[in-house]
Write a structure and sequence with these properties.
Protein name: Trehalose 6-phosphate synthase
Keywords: Glycosyltransferase, Transferase
GO molecular function, one term: alpha,alpha-trehalose-phosphate synthase (UDP-forming) activity
Family: Belongs to the glycosyltransferase 20 family.
Helix content: 40-55%
Bound molecules: adenosine-5'-diphosphate-glucose
Shape: globular
Number of strands: 18
Number of helices: 16
CATH class of the largest domain: Alpha Beta
Structural class: alpha/beta
Organism: Intrasporangium calvum (strain ATCC 23552 / DSM 43043 / JCM 3097 / NBRC 12989 / NCIMB 10167 / NRRL B-3866 / 7 KIP)
Distance between the termini: 37 Å
CATH topology of the largest domain: Rossmann fold
């Protein structure tokens, strides 16, 4: 590190940079902000702290040089094509992701994937160490970067290190399957503060430290046994959405007009049901379709009066479990439409694309019933986005109790997606509950999200990072 180089008081590290690369017709490269909640949250905190963001650009190959964009210093980290395969698709998404989501599909264990995970985490830590000012706050995101906290600490013992897990942290019985479980825990314990979506996730982490590393823990604090006297705090700080930004988008006349247009183009059904998910086996799309199909077969509902729009964003298409899920969902949709659709009135409208934010807000406003039925989900922002967009107090949210969101939004029409009969009942209740009762529920759900938005989440996280115990003050009695 040279003394003339600019460094930053806040450094965020995440698998991806908060921008997407676009190349125009002349071959000029432009970067456009990707509109995720994390970026919005960081914007609000970075306005008062000069900040850097360390992340992968999304293309295999050498990292482009650092650049500044929308008030942030962006520091790309390069991944080779093999590292994209082994670190990202392999260890992150085919080893950790299934273990951290209750092994809905089996996890794959490969030692060369682990080697790539270690190597890439070290590279991220080196980039962070170069960007951080003396005593800076470093905020590392998510399951792809669990070793980075300890690597950063080795390189820069002067900085404060936080990590936030966007996905669940598994019970120790599942976590223990990982051949690299101790190294992962030791990587995380390099941080001063660990944030989780639910208190149960934080407790699972503390229990794993006790049982697998033999460390002492009291409440939310784990005490290290390396002679440093350091303690690490683990607690829940659930993420949220940019309530005010999204609500005002949903109030724009063009968005409201588009919502009406969507309903008209679907033949103005009495009940429009909606699912919006990354095409992922954790999201319970198969269970949702099964329940819907049975409701149609039993003639509780049927097109054209009731229809379902399922938006399934393409995701991780080079991982086998995702390819076979896509095939299965597409076959199921084809079968339901073949058997139960009518001319001009399919039972399921299936859309396998990404949409701009305005279109998503219009879809949320058009939907009478929003189906959020994951088998396991760290939070699920779609549930919070839906209620945020319903400034008209219309609509009903069916929400799985296995999402982090349910712990805040339990007034929703709750379901256990494994219980198909129960899921059908929740869907029917969401349709048939009187309008005034649904409005009362929606008002309560909206109040919760309005009071706990993503800006509050980021402020709370950084305050907890600042207040984390680190090394407790020496005992004055000596
Ligand atoms: P995800 O698993 O990606 O996130 P989720 O929280 O639902 O799940 O976020 C998905 C985001 O993508 C939402 O903002 C949604 O609006 C958007 N989206 C989905 N389909 C889209 C489409 N077709 N077009 C455009 N946008 C679309 C992980 C964890 C979650 C956790 C988040 C944040 O798995 O549990 O809530 O991180 O911490």
């Amino acid at each position: 590190m040279t003394s003339t180089r600019k460094t930053f008081d806040l450094v965020v590290a995440a698998n991806r940079l908060p921008v997407d690369k676009q190349v125009d017709e002349q071959g000029n490269v432009e970067w456009h902000r990707s509109p995720g909640g994390l970026v919005t949250a960081m914007e609000s905190v970075m306005r008062s702290n000069p900040g850097a963001w360390v992340g992968w650009s999304g293309d295999a190959g050498e990292a482009p040089p650092p650049f500044d964009e929308e008030g942030m210093h962006l520091r790309p980290v390069g991944l080779s094509a093999e590292e994209v395969r082994d670190f990202y698709e392999g260890f992150s998404n085919d080893t950790l992701w299934p273990i951290y989501h209750d092994v809905i599909v089996p996890a794959s264990f490969h030692r060369e994937w682990w080697a790539a995970y270690v190597r890439v985490n070290r590279r991220f830590a080196e980039a962070v160490a170069e960007e951080a000012a003396p005593g800076a706050r470093v905020w590392i995101q998510d399951y792809q970067l669990q070793l980075a906290p300890a690597f950063v600490r080795q390189l820069r013992p002067d900085v404060r290190i936080g990590w936030f897990n966007h996905i669940p942290f598994p019970p120790v019985e599942l976590f223990a399957q990982l051949p690299w479980r101790s190294s992962l825990l030791e990587g995380l314990l390099g941080a001063d503060f660990l944030g989780f979506q639910r208190q149960a996730d934080a407790r699972n982490f503390v229990r794993a430290c006790r049982q697998l590393l033999g460390l002492r823990a009291k409440g939310e604090r784990v005490a290290l046994d390396d002679g440093s006297g350091r303690q690490v705090r683990a607690t829940a700080i659930p993420i949220s959405v940019d309530y005010r930004g999204l609500e005002s988008l949903a109030q724009q006349p063009e968005v409201m007009a588009r919502a009406k247009e969507i309903r008209e183009s679907l033949g103005n059904p009495d009940v429009l049901m909606l699912g919006v998910d990354r095409l992922d086996y954790t999201k319970g799309i198969r269970h949702r379709l099964k329940a819907y199909e049975e409701l149609l077969l039993e003639r509780h509902i049927g097109p054209p009066d009731v229809t379902l729009v399922q938006v399934a964003t393409p995701s991780r298409e080079r991982v086998e479990a995702y390819r076979s899920l896509r095939e299965e969902i597409e076959q199921t949709v084809g079968r339901i439409n073949g058997e139960l659709g009518k001319i001009g009135a399919p039972a399921v409208h299936y859309l396998h694309h990404s949409y701009p934010r305005e279109e998503m807000a219009a879809l949320f406003q058009a939907a009478d019933v929003m189906l959020v039925t994951p088998l396991r989900d760290g939070m699920n922002l779609v549930a919070k986005e839906y209620v945020t967009c319903r400034h008209d107090l219309g609509g009903a949210l069916v929400l799985s109790e296995f999402t982090g969101a349910w712990h805040e939004l339990h007034q929703a029409f709750t379901c256990n997606p494994h219980d198909i009969e129960g899921l059908k009942q929740a869907m029917l209740r969401a349709i048939n509950t009187p309008k005034r009762d649904k409005e009362r529920i929606m008002r309560a759900l909206r109040r919760r999200v309005a009071d706990h938005d993503v800006q509050r989440w980021a402020r709370r996280y950084l305050a907890a990072l600042d207040a984390a115990p680190g090394v407790p003050a020496p005992d004055p009695r000596g």
